[in-house]
Amino acid sequence: MSTIRVSPEVADALADQRAVVALESTIFSNLGLPSPANREALTRCIAAVRAAGAVPAVTAVLDGVARVGLVDHEHDRILGAARKVAERDLAVAIGESWQFGATTVSASLALAARVGVQVFATGGIGGVHRGAELHGDVSADLPALARHSVVTVSAGAKSFLDLPRTLEMLETLSVPVIGFGCDEFPAFTVVSSGLQLAHRIDECASLARVAHARLQLGGGMLVCTPVPAADAVDAKVMHAAIERALLAAHQQGVSGPAVTPLVLAEIAADTEGQAVRANLSLAENNAKLAGELAVRLQNL
Ligand code: PSU
Ligand code: MN
Questions:
Q1: In the chain, how many domains are there?
Q2: 266 is catalytic
Q3: How many A from CA of 141 to the centre of ligand 2?
Q4: Over the stretch 47-68, which tens digit does the pLDDT of each residue have?
Q5: What b/e sequence results for 201-212 when a residue is b if at least 16 CB atoms lie within 10 Å of its CB, and e otherwise?
């Protein structure tokens, strides 16, 4: 009975100390993006990692086996209906043989760390939800970023979260948050949150040296790069869509892990494809930077 299976291509790359980039599967499943944008996102992210000279390693639970790296024909499976698997759910998804568990950031980081993948790319991380001071909903992504020695590349945190508290929590957890070519915390499909970051780095070579130091010290790190400006959603448009989406979630009585998928779907519908286009663009951009960083890290 295998618990984690690494694909042959990823295993070879790890053995030869070549660059590998882990990718989560939640964003590509029905919990993340609407069809057919999810397929386009997956294709573009994989291509971006490869173009940078790294090997993509999609994480998922398939037929009760945690997977790091899929073979080509398996990629179709992660575009379908999924059960959400955060780090806490991994053992259950494996032990109970879930057909398709879509791994979130926290579960992907746990799997990547376990098999020695050092770099991971996602769209936007989870964080402190608005109203968390009352209901306590804080994404497991945050402690996972601190605990696992993997570098995450993202366009910041999803803009429907409480971004100031998310940054505070990352500081409390001692996660280095680096603006790559930006001074402010990006806000997912919006270029900036207006929140100042403690650290900015402009060169990939410096980023790799910092990442190397952090991995040696033990623990993860968050690299933030904004959505490409041409595909960004206007902040006012986005904020209005977020207000409506959060209200819909509230009215439907949705809470816990179901909040993020519902809010993403409401925003996608409400912005007539603008948010989805931005999501694809930023996911691809993150995958590209992650690939470049992974290659630099191997060459240090
Ligand atoms: N960002 C996206 N799409 C997503 C998510 C993030 O662009 O689908 C997912 C990620 O898998 C992230 C998860 O880890 O949402 C966070 O969920 P929660 O807020 O329930 O922790
Ligand atoms: Mn939650």
A1: 1
A2: no
A3: 9
A4: 999 999 999 999 999 999 999 9
A5: beebeebbebbe
Distance CA 165, CA 18 (A): 37
24: annotated active-site residue = yes
Domain region containing 225 = 4-299
Q: Is the sign of the CA dihedral 79, 81, 86, 89 positive or negative?
A: negative
- Single out the catalytic residue among 87, 158, 288, 292: 158
Among the listed residues 153, 234, 245, 141, the one whose alpha carbon sits nearest the alpha carbon of residue 189: 234
Other residues' Cβ atoms within 10 Å of the Cβ of residue 71: 10
Q: How far apart are the first and last CA of the chain?
A: 37
Indicate the range of 157-161, 213-217, 222-226 predicted with least confidence. Answer: 157-161
Quickly list H helices, the chain: 8-15, 37-51, 90-95, 105-115, 132-135, 141-147, 163-172, 204-217, 235-251, 259-270, 274-299
Distances (CA, A) of 90 to 53, 108, 221, 234: 30, 10, 22, 37
**Domain of residue 238, CATH code:** 3.40.1790.10
Q: What is the pLDDT of residue 272?
A: 84
